[in-house]
């Protein structure tokens, strides 16, 4: 795959009436070899690219009437064109070596989730899904094990899918007929792991029962919280009423003397 990197700073000039002018420089590459690097300099006016230099052509090409005139002018500046050609080797190739190694040495361990799903009608009575996600780099191996032996039949595995944030994910399904006492596992091999990551399936409680248990527990906790809140409110209110009740008026009546 081709990688894209901004090679030079973006130059931007604000013009009156909201128009702006800016230039970008980047390089596309699929290896650190000079022949596999394409150096591209683009000029824009009001978000429209009007001229571009590419190292493969070694000159500017205009895309608008003004861009054609400007490209011809820049192409006539021998020292300017020579400098752009030199940038590919002196600047881009040097930085690619650093960036390329950084990408190759970066690795993130995958997260594995194993769960059951209702299989299609007419198939095996059970189906497991092994979801592997948030890993880098892309290459990964996902295998199913049944009592330690690899299973290859009734297995479907997707290609590695990009998440859009440098990470990848892959899903693998296994359709099977359960056997008493067996152990089914999802085995993942990846560059970030020192040894394969094996996740065993626990059939002791189906997903539906787990969900019911979680919902029931949540309801119980919520009920306890509400009950406690009501009790505290009642006690405070009762205490407030007792404090606000007026003390009985005590009068002393002098006994009459006969």
Tell me what you see in this structure.
With 258 residues, this protein is an alpha+beta fold. The chain folds into 2 domains: 3-105, Class II Histocompatibility Antigen, M Beta Chain, Chain B, domain 1 (Roll), CATH 3.10.320.10; 111-208, Immunoglobulins (Immunoglobulin-like). Helices cover 30% and strands 34% of the residues. It contains 3 helices and 15 strands. The chain has helices at residues 65-75, 78-105, 207-244; strands spanning 3-6, 11-14, 20-29, 37-45, 48-54, 59-62, 111-116, 126-135, 140-146, 149-151, 155-157, 161-162, 168-176, 184-190, 197-200. The strands form 3 sheets. Strands 1, 2, 3, 4, 5 and 6 form a 6-stranded antiparallel beta sheet that branches. The longest helix has 38 residues, at 207-244. It is extended and about 85 Å long. The N and C termini lie far apart (121 Å). Mean pLDDT is 78; it is low at 4-15 and 245-258. Residues 1-25 form the signal peptide. This is H-2 class II histocompatibility antigen, E-S beta chain-like. The chain crosses the membrane at residues 213-234. It is a single-pass type I membrane protein. It is found in: Membrane.
Task: Write a compact overview of the structure shown.
The chain has three helices and 15 strands. It is of the alpha+beta class and 258 residues long.
């Amino acid at each position: 795959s081709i990688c894209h990197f901004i090679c030079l700073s973006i130059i931007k000039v604000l013009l009156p009436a909201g128009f702006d002018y800016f230039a970008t420089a980047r390089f596309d590459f699929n290896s650190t070899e000079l022949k596999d690097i394409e150096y591209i300099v683009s000029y824009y006016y009001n978000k429209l690219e009007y001229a571009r230099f590419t190292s493969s052509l070694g000159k500017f090409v205009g895309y608008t009437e003004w861009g054609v005139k400007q490209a011809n002018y820049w192409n006539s500046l021998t020292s300017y064109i020579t400098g752009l050609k030199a940038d590919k080797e002196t600047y881009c190739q040097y930085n690619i070596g650093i960036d390329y190694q950084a990408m190759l040495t970066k690795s993130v361990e995958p997260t594995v989730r194993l769960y059951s799903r209702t299989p299609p009608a007419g198939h095996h009575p059970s189906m497991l899904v092994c979801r592997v996600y948030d890993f880098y780099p892309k290459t990964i191996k996902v295998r199913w094990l049944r009592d330690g032996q690899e299973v290859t039949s009734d297995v479907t595995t997707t290609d590695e899918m990009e998440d859009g944030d440098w990470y990848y994910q892959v899903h693998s399904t296994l359709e099977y007929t359960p056997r008493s006492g067996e152990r089914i596992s999802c085995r993942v091999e990846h560059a970030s792991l020192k040894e394969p990551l094996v996740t065993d399936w626990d059939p002791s409680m189906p997903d539906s029962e787990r969900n019911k248990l979680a919902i029931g527990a949540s309801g119980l906790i919520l009920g306890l919280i509400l009950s406690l809140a009501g009790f505290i409110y009642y006690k405070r209110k009762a205490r407030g009423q007792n404090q606000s009740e007026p003390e009985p008026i005590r009068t002393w009546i002098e006994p009459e003397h006969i």
